[in-house]
Design goal:
Helix 1 runs parallel beside helix 2 (85-93). Helices cover 21% and strands 29% of the residues. It has two helices and six strands.
Length: 126
């Protein structure tokens, strides 16, 4: 059985999906883009701020499910420009202990929703 996880502390979905789905002890979090949930506006122009907003959105969803970044076992990062990888990685690293960080892939893509520069999804377990 699956349980839908949604919080007003992260952006509302912009399509036919939910912020996250809990199935058994596994939480699947939809890709988060840099939308400020309070205003609904995109954070633009600074990849570090954009990445931080993505991570804060993910944090809010994890908290709604009763989890933290310690529960994350897999991350997927999609970026529009691999030249921004180090800046994105520096922000991302602030949310994890290097010794117990999750598995991850980072992929450069042609476009992302709303033409943002970064989108991050995660899988977490209880």
């Amino acid at each position: 059985m699956k349980k839908i996880i949604n919080t007003t502390n992260a952006p509302a979905p912009i399509g036919p999906y939910n912020q996250a789905v809990l199935s058994g002890n596994t939480l699947y979090i939809s890709g988060q883009i840099p939308i400020d949930p309070k205003t609904g506006n995109l954070i633009e122009g600074d990849i570090a701020k954009e990445t931080k907003q993505c991570m804060e959105n993910l944090k809010a969803i994890l908290l709604e499910a009763g989890m933290t970044f310690e529960n994350v076992v897999k991350s997927s990062i999609f970026i529009s420009d691999m030249n921004q990888f180090s800046e994105i990685n520096n922000v991302y690293a602030n949310y994890f202990d290097a010794a117990t960080a999750p598995a991850r892939e980072t992929v450069e893509v042609a476009n992302l929703p709303k033409f943002v520069n970064v989108e991050i999804s995660m899988i977490a377990v209880v």
